[in-house]
Amino acid sequence: MIREIEHTADRGIEVEADDLGQLFREAAEGMVGIISEGRKDQPIFEKKIELKTTSLRNLLIKFLSEILYLVQDELTGYAGVEIFKLTERKLSANLMLYEAPEIFAEIKNVTYHNFLLEKKGEGYICRIIFDT
């Protein structure tokens, strides 16, 4: 479940998911939903990504930052992700992308401000603030 949350000058999302894969997928969908409208009818191509970092928190930030770069700087649209491997420090996945998305807002950065990522019952919850 993705919810946009109120923040003074920036934009944010809160995501609840049953597992880490779902959390990463929904966090990406929530972020991209702020800046562009996904059009899954476009020809889709894939980009393999391999990310390594020091913690799960850093991995989620790095994952979202990679997608943000592709959407805003490389002008590709995000249509989804197929995750092959996800641990606390490593992600291997294919991003499903399309050409020429319609961008209607800008996110400057994925931030650590008020960042939350924790286990909640049987699932996970995260809160991410985007510098806009």
Question: How would you describe this protein?
Answer:
Strand 1 and strand 2 (11-17) form a beta hairpin. 25% of the residues lie in helices and 43% in strands. The strands form two sheets. Strands 1, 2, 6, 7 and 8 form a five-stranded antiparallel β-sheet that branches. Strands 3-5-4 form a three-stranded antiparallel β-sheet, with helices on one face. With 132 residues, it is of the alpha+beta class. It has a single domain, classed as 3-Layer(bab) Sandwich (Archease, Possible Chaperone, Chain: A, domain 1). The model has no long low-confidence stretch (mean pLDDT 91). The two termini are 22 Å apart. It is globular, with a radius of gyration of 14 Å.
What is the mean predicted local confidence, pLDDT? 91
Shape: globular
The strand count comes to: 8
Radius of gyration: 14 Å
Low-confidence regions? none
Major β-sheet annotation? 5 strands, antiparallel
Rounded to the nearest angstrom, the distance between the terminal CA atoms is 22 Å
Can I get a quick summary?
The protein has 132 residues and is of the alpha+beta class. Helix content is 25%, strand content 43%. Strands 1, 2, 6, 7 and 8 form a five-stranded antiparallel sheet that branches. Strands 3-5-4 form a three-stranded antiparallel sheet, covered by helices on one side.
